[in-house]
Amino acid sequence: MNYSFIMDYLAYRRNAVSQYSIHPPFIYDIVNQSIRKKLTIKDEPLIIDCKSGNLKNSTMIEVTDLGTAYSGNRHYQRTVSSIARHSSKPLKYARLLYRLAHYFSPKTILELGTSFGYSSMYLASAIPAGRLITIEGCPNTAAIAKKNFVHCGFNNIILHTGNFDELLPTELSNSKPDFIFLDGNHQYEATLRYFNEFLSITEEHTVIIFDDIYWSAGMKKAWTEIKDHPGVTSTIDVFMFGIVFFRKGLTKQHFKVRF
Fold first, then answer.
1. Can you give the CATH number for the domain in which 120 is found?
2. Residues 99-118: pLDDT tens digits?
3. pTM score > 0.90 for this model?
């Protein structure tokens, strides 16, 4: 955790507001009914048990990294336990993903960046009548995610393995997702490129969540440009996530919400 990240977090804490300071009914209801509200997650014990098993697994696997701000395209060795420990979302944010998906009840969720599939399972758990399509660039981590999905009994998850740049155009064309979670390739250029591709299928009720919006200077710049895009009407910043809306009739506003 670097100095800039700490300062960004302190600034977020200083400026974030509660639901009582939010006036647009649409944003207030989201905050009150999903961000602040607690829900029981029926499948959570299974997901936690699955993660616990991975945390005890010292098997070494080769990771194919198709692009982060530091590593670029390369291969390296890591243990399953190390990946499970460092690549999964903090529990409060995994639960937030569930609540947001539960609130909006999308028919199709698209996730870019599966890793071992913990976030995938929280999202899929929220939409038992819908489907989640997730794309992972690393074949070995995708194989473990697939085992996790089977172990936890999820049959509404479709997992594709490959490069986002190659798979995304076809997936957007075929599936028309109404809820998108971008959790991979945290680079400025890639984030904006994917956002512009998302715009080809967005409708008024589409929701897009960007992960790690304060992760680097490039991600902060990308988040600023996304907020300023004329098609974006409102955003919610909960520090780790940036949530984007395209609802008509909203005054363009951006909210840092206490979480």
1. 3.40.50.150
2. 999 999 999 999 999 999 99
3. yes
